[in-house]
Specification:
This protein has 420 residues and is α/β, with parallel strands linked by helices. The protein contains 20 helices and nine strands. It has a five-stranded parallel beta sheet with strand order 4-5-6-3-7, with helices on both faces. A two-stranded antiparallel ribbon has the order 1-2. The protein is globular, with a radius of gyration of 23 Å. This is TIR protein.
Length: 420
């Protein structure tokens, strides 16, 4: 943190600035700041290198979770925990959202299970997934977390065969088994989908007796690519159906994670989005906001919590940004920071400008959003526009009506859109 202050004229970097500086995604940086066990040494080295620092042994450690009372299971004695960073006050613990966690744990212990997790960006999907996979890892399940963000758009998302080979190669890499793709792949004969299915069923699944939990993150990145998603999502659905009757496929437990509503057209019998157990992350409650504040050693009255949530709701990222700022600058009061929050000079300036730039590229959508922030009640708009604004995280859906998701957005965009 000292290097950060020194490098940025005595100020903390925003999450977006840190992402640009390090080359890591905001989700990955949140995991670093949250001291998650899924952060590997290479990621830490990338962060340190961005500030011309060398990662030393005392900068990270291998914690022993045997005495962690909040975990639902004991850690097996042979479990080796990956390195996580030693942090200052940026360290935050996981805030439970009952009964979501228990539903996820119980679902994925069922043979052939499928879990669907949906929430807008920065709502805590990353932390929840790490929590789930950490729990299952302690049950000695094999776990894979693969983000489709890692696929090269111009290479892997142009043709199904290329995508499925990329997919299988990454599964092999994550499981640390030799790549035997050529022994199973026959695009011309049996086709890419059957080749992929055979590779998983006959090679990857038999590698161990324990279940395999496959978490596919950012699956909505496939939505603009019908030449890929139509077959791939149908393939996932077929594996789920196999898991209902075939013992070999019951080892596979699928987790699909996405930020937006599923607006693509899929045959109802070929879609993985209408089966399994759905999980949707909502804002933190007042109690959960208090729990998060206490992790920063901050104490607020109920009136202050209500004022805070009146501005930013229970949005995890916005709350973390607020609490980290108040912890770093104790001379500022919550009321002072809230007063400046819906402006470019406030702590959310970078976050708000990103929305602003996106709206400027779509004047028609900006005009619609101007009507929304100018109205004192929820209004009805075109379904496609409602979907777009909801996917961005700017509006809340109320039956067939929409309203600004937070007062922060209403105040900021009322000012910025007034001359349009």
């Amino acid at each position: 943190m000292e290097a950060e202050f020194k490098d940025n004229n005595g100020h903390r970097y925003t999450l977006e600035q840190m992402s640009e500086r390090t080359g890591l995604t905001p989700d990955t940086l949140i995991k670093v700041f949250a001291c998650e066990s899924k952060v590997d040494k290479q990621t830490l080295q990338t962060c340190f290198k961005a500030f011309r620092l060398k990662l030393e042994h005392h900068d990270y450690f291998y914690p022993d979770f045997d005495d962690e009372e909040d975990l639902p299971t004991l850690v097996p004695p042979n479990y080796i925990q990956p390195a996580i960073p030693v942090s200052t006050h940026d360290t935050i613990s996981y805030v439970e959202r009952p009964p979501i966690e228990s539903i996820c744990y119980e679902t994925l212990q069922q043979p052939g299970a499928l879990l669907r997790i949906k929430a807008p960006s920065l709502m805590g999907k990353t932390l929840l997934i790490s929590r789930i996979l950490g729990f299952l890892g302690r049950l000695e399940y094999r776990t894979i977390r693969l983000s489709l963000e890692l696929a090269d758009r111009k290479t892997h998302l142009t043709q199904l065969n290329k995508f499925l080979r990329w997919f299988c190669l990454n599964l092999s890499r994550e499981l640390k088994v030799p790549n035997c793709l050529e022994d199973y792949w026959d695009e011309e004969g049996i086709g890419a989908k059957v080749s992929c299915t055979t590779y998983i069923e006959e090679y990857l699944l038999p590698q161990a007796d324990s279940p395999l939990v496959l978490c596919l993150d950012d699956v909505d990145l496939l939505f603009p690519h019908p030449e890929i998603y139509e077959d791939f999502f149908g393939l996932l659905r077929s594996w789920y159906e196999k898991g209902r009757t075939r013992a070999s496929w019951q080892k596979l437990r699928l987790v699909l994670v996405h930020s937006t509503n599923v607006y693509i057209r899929l045959n109802i019998n070929q879609s993985p989005f209408n089966v399994g157990i759905p999980i949707e992350l909502s804002d933190f409650t007042e109690e959960q906001v208090q729990q998060l504040a206490q992790q920063y050693n901050l104490e607020f009255t109920l009136d202050q919590i209500q004022k805070l949530m009146g501005m930013i709701g229970g949005h995890p990222y916005l709350l973390i940004k607020m609490f980290a700022y108040l912890k770093s600058y104790p001379n500022f009061t919550l009321e002072q920071v809230l007063q400046e929050a819906p402006t470019d000079a406030g702590i959310y300036g970078s976050h708000l400008r990103e929305f602003w730039f996106n709206l400027q590229t779509n004047p028609e959508l900006a005009t619609v959003f101007k009507k929304i922030v100018s109205s004192t009640s929820a209004i009805n708009i075109e379904p496609v526009q409602a979907y777009q604004l909801h996917s961005m995280g700017l509006v809340e859906l109320c039956d067939n009506y929409v309203k600004p998701r937070y007062n922060l957005y209403r105040l900021y965009f009322s000012s910025h859109l007034k001359d349009m």
